[in-house]
Amino acid sequence: MTEQKKKLEKLSGVKGMNDLLPEEAGLWEFFEATVKSMLRAYGYQNIRTPIVEPTQLFTRGIGEVTDIVEKEMYSFTDALNGEQLTLRPENTAAVVRAVIEHNLLYDGPKRLWYIGPMFRHERPQRGRYRQFHQVGVEALGFAGPDTDAEIILMCQRLWDDLGLSGIRLEINSLGLAEERAAHRVELIAYLEKHQDALDEDARRRLYTNPLRVLDTKNPALQAIVQDAPKLIDFLGDDSRAHFDGLQRILKSNNIPFKINPRLVRGLDYYNLTVFEWVTDKLGAQGTVAAGGRYDPLIEQLGGKPTAACGWAMGIERILELLKEEKLVPENEGCDVYVVHQGEAAREQAFIIAERLRDTGLDVILHCSQDGQTASFKSQMKRADASGAAFAVILGEDEISAGTAGVKVLRERQGEGKSEQRTVPVEDLTEFLINAMVATADEGDD
Ligand code: ATP
Ligand code: MG
């Protein structure tokens, strides 16, 4: 291959990291607007942290013996100063780091939320990507089960607002450290009895993090895991009361749930409440949100002991579900597309388009693709294809008469496209705004 040819080769993006194309933008914006309005309804405040953090934050904050830290992190050495850095695989550790660093809890507890891309080196498949997006909440400084319940109710409200049904809630309690220690002794003894049947991951975790063996995805291990000693049978009075408290609030708010004793979550820092929202409609990647309480984490990262709980939601999986359920909102075009012909009309078109934008209308001004003025016919084709509601037409005749042509482009119910109307330029804004309102009213019927 010649040098010349090599340069012309097409470049592709990184495997498992997706481009979000304009045709999907409406869906993303719909989700983001809906989730933000839900978060506002509960008084949550936005926090934005960097995408890159010191690797140590995640090894300490997530736990060495986890899928994420063992095999999923994009870590690298900064070539300029030798720092060990990692693209964030999740955002709880980073939010907690920022909260400690800026002493955000000095005046009491905080309800925080974040949204953005996360990075994990996994095998790409439906619902599992190497760059994916999460929205998440962290409620810091609240110890009671009422906050666990609140963050769960937030999810339910979001499903309702999005129009999604059939997402099931599973909950469990991981108890406290000493309760897990007592369970661990019996769990290890049980797993040792089945050592020959364990897979490599499970054998490696047997002594480092046996609880994690319980959330294995290996079908061959399901029977063993099913009969393993259950952590829930080791809970002390306080843990049990916390778990009962949560269940009471869920029941009084009519949130159905199932207790899943094998739900242990992938991350090490959880205690007491853990939960997942699961759907059957996405195949193997059915968990759309997961969360729970992580009271030990803040101290583990160098802060004062502080109660904490939160969840993270996989946005791609929820969008997939919206598509599956045919809940995708229609992509709306602009309000107005301005076509023009002739030097004088081009100048006026610019001014008129700006004036329309001043009033809040969304306007596309026709621009030439090749420096030549396109015919009205081909400009109108573009206007149609743009999805705009109206075309504003400016030719030499209109300019000399001080008028503009207006044409309805989006067909209204029961009506064809309208004939072209002539409107004095000074009345144009008012005319368009009234026409927009009329169209919107019809849409409401
Ligand atoms: P899984 O068991 O599916 O690997 P996880 O336990 O690793 O999930 P969390 O770390 O709890 O997931 O992340 C919360 C949510 O983020 C998940 O429930 C899922 O919806 C989403 N998520 C996690 N990893 C990915 C990924 N690689 N691609 C897309 N979404 C993901
Ligand atoms: Mg995972």
Question: What does it look like?
Answer:
40% of the residues lie in helices and 19% in strands. By secondary structure, it is α+β, with helices and mostly antiparallel strands. It folds into 2 domains: 244 residues, BirA Bifunctional Protein, domain 2, CATH 3.30.930; 100 residues, Rossmann fold (3-Layer(aba) Sandwich). The chain has an 8-stranded mixed beta sheet. The protein has a 5-stranded mixed beta sheet with strand order 13-12-14-15-16, with helices on both faces. The longest helix is centred in the N-terminal third of the chain and has 20 residues. The structure holds adenosine-5'-triphosphate and magnesium ion. The site of magnesium ion has 2 residues, from loops.
Provide the helix percentage. 40-55%
Query: What is the second-level CATH architecture of the largest domain?
Result: 2-Layer Sandwich
Report the portion of residues in β strands.
Answer: 15-25%
Count helical runs: 16
Mean pLDDT: 92
What kind of oligomer do you see?
Answer: single chain
Number of domains: 2
Main-sheet strand order equals: 1-5-6-11-10-9-7-8
Radius of gyration: 28 Å
The CATH topology of the largest domain turns out to be BirA Bifunctional Protein, domain 2
Poorly predicted runs: none
E-strand count: 16
Shape: elongated
CATH superfamily of the largest domain: Bira Bifunctional Protein, Domain 2
Structure described in brief:
This protein has 16 helices and 16 strands.
